[in-house]
Amino acid sequence: MNLLENKAIQIANKNIKDKIRHWQYLVFSLGFAVMFTLLFYFFLGREVFQYAFPGMIIYTTAAGTTSAAISFAVDKTSGMLERLDTMPTGRKNLFLGALLSETLMISLQILIMFILGYAVLQVPFKGIFEIFIGFFIAVLFGISAVGIGIIISGIAKTPEIANAIALFYYMPILFLSGSLWPFESAIVFFTPPYWAKQVFLQITVLGDGLFDPLYSSSLFGPTGTAQQLPITLFGGLLVVIAFTLAFIILGIIIFQKKTKF
Fold it and tell me: What is the SS3 string spanning 138-204?
């Protein structure tokens, strides 16, 4: 393991310790996801809720946008970036470390939600393999949420503004994507959450394969109907990957700019 990797891991370790010290925010953000999950469960009933649970997972994961935006905004406003600019590969270490720590925290939150949904609430699912694929999709979407958070932190001048922008972004986008409730509009296809939620839903709930057709966002409940799209689940997964790469690359470009803050 080279020196760069060591430094990145050290920064990731520091970030995780900081998050643990400020555990109230983690509990608060996860608490909202748990609350919405329980409300949807008791409101919809177990049979229908299995179709809504993927949206709850995406909601939880999208909160990584806020966490990442605040984390990078703090590093920017604290002067850490300016200090690192005087050191070799400083920002690269900070970026890799922060990306690693944010991904680990998102994975932990997804795991907690999986335990709540599949173990506690007994949400039906097709199989263990499908659950692992669903977990991978959720983490992949979480990484894209981190990328958006980095972009927001590059725009915002303070952590408070970064938090506000992140909330203003991801709450409307979740509703427009049809993740929290069916939304029949072409708008859904331009929202990253739709693709992650729909692929997750069809694999874990319906047991569809990667080369089965993708459906529109109106699939909600055992009697729900949805329009078949001219794209497979594999194509939908590629869209999720494309969004993730695009947001991370754009985030890196913004993050690496040696501008004076």
Answer: HHHHHHHHHHHHHHHHHHCCCHHHHHHHHHHHHHHHHHHCCCCCCCCCHHHHHCHHHHHHHHHHHHH
